[in-house]
Design a protein that fits this description.
Blueprint (H helix, E strand, L loop, with lengths): L5 H8 L10 H6 L3 H23 L3 E7 L2 E9 L4 E2 L1 H13 L5 E3 L5 E4 L7 H16 L1 H4 L3
Helix pairs in contact: 3-5
């Protein structure tokens, strides 16, 4: 008697899961262009946000995939104490600058980004520059 998991059989039908032996460029060529763009710009944005993380102790973690990203704001990186008031301040200041973002997570301390697919590397640069300026403000650093 052969046991075949439903999940396994679904995975076997998806071409991207069959490409484990292919080179990265061959796998990338199998992905639609809009998804490639989201991965490329998202990776670029994550790199910029990781650079911000090195400069600002308030950023505890940057995570995500493609253009769906989260920036975890914490008061202390060791204890991972959430910074919900700072996250709220940053989101409101981003809105003042014309950038829409929201908070998420159980403590509402994760800034959630979901830009449209037309989001470019120039837009990513503008976001990182704006975020850096906001995080330098005294009100973003003060516990409220």
């Amino acid at each position: 008697m052969r046991f075949r998991s439903r999940r396994l059989s679904r995975r076997r039908t998806l071409p991207i899961h069959l490409t484990t032996g292919w080179s990265f460029s061959a796998r990338l060529a199998a992905i639609p262009l809009h998804v490639q763009h989201a991965l490329r710009v998202g990776t670029y944005l994550i790199e910029g946000l990781k650079a911000l993380q090195a400069r600002h102790a308030l950023i505890g973690d940057v995570r995500g995939s493609g253009l769906f990203l989260g920036i975890d704001l914490v008061l202390d990186r060791e204890t991972r104490e959430a910074a919900p008031s700072q996250a709220s301040y940053v989101v409101n200041r981003l809105r003042d600058c014309g950038i829409l973002a929201g908070t998420d997570g159980p403590h509402h301390n994760v800034i959630k980004l979901r830009p449209p697919l037309v989001f470019s590397q120039a837009d990513a640069d503008l976001f990182v520059k704006t975020m850096d300026a906001i995080l330098r403000e005294d009100a973003a650093q003060r516990p409220r």
